[in-house]
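To start, an entry.
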Amino acid sequence: MKHVIIFIILLTITIFPGYAQTQSNPSIRLETIEIPFDKFNVVSSDANIITLEHEHTINWQLTIENNLVYANPLGNAVIRLYDNLNKEKFIEIGMGSQPDFKFWVAVQTPDTGYAVIHSRIEDGWKPGEHITAAYSDSTGFSVNNGERIVVSNLDVENFVIKEIAVYGMESSTDPHATNSGSLILNVVSGNPADNPLFYLPFAITGAVGVLVVVLLKTKKRM
């Protein structure tokens, strides 16, 4: 019995690394989108829609690198993350121009309408610092403005990203919000349960357990 268990352990050590090296991880989805400055020179009703390559669900993180050069003090860079399961629901992150650098986070749902969750009219974000938004089915939605967490564990109910909209002008008669630069979005998501390797340790453990029980019963009969 002892020799059989040792053999199984050695076989597991041999198979698992090789299997891990030959299989890609389908549970991890990563994409980078660079949005040029002119996409922000529209009002919200004319927001530019960007369709992502992947549907990001279960657990996702969005990193915002704002390299835009603002053209006037009223200019903004606003990002709306639409829930692919409900187009009437979105999360909005807004970054205002110098000198105030206002920052806000808002959520719209069919039940509650549009609600600002966090707002700071001065020094809300800093150029050069990455803004991070993250969602998990278990912990909800959170935002870090580059210095601290400003939204934490907000319940947004199974939020799935597939489309993003951007705009920056408050009124169509305003000067352009931006005149150069770009905004870079990095999106990563993953569901460990989608990865075949996720189940392999459990399968091996179960097989070993069954074998041990069988061997113990066989030994008692002998």
